[in-house]
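Input sequence (181 aa), recorded before submission:
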Amino acid sequence: MKFAITDKDGTRKVYTLKPFEALTLADYAKFHCDPWPEGIEGYEHAIEYIARMTGAPKKKLLRIPVKDFEALQAKAFDAVGKISEATAKEPPKTFTHHKQTFVIPHDLEDIPFQQWRAMVDVYWANCTGEADCFATSLACFCLAEGEDFDDVDVNDRKALFMSLPCSVALGTCAFFFGRSE
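Predicted structure, token format:
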């Protein structure tokens, strides 16, 4: 959904609120994982979400007509609500990202110990937030078809998976964390 805000001087800028299907793990990190200001509630919460999801300055969002703000709020919370739907489904056996097919392990007890150890002891220790931990888990567990973990640069793979659609990233991680002990 695109919307425009016109400044007092007549300058018009167009912003985009992505639908859930277009949100990436990096987008999720921006609007969901960064620290929230203390004590916000009500419409301030909606303003914060919409500002994070669109890049529109909060002060400018306050100037749009109520009916337009309500439409934006409905779309923003629709996208956020779909996160729960994505995390409730069992992921497919594979996913394709940047022309590579990655295998999603469905029996985590079959993952070689070296992958668990790398994830927990090395990479999770350096995670900077929830989305970073999700990208780390995906990088350690989801290998390209025929790939050996020894050949994976986990940091490069984490960067690649930050552009993974939320529907795949969050659903797969919810599956992993729901299956781990």
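Checked by second reader. The mean pLDDT is 86.
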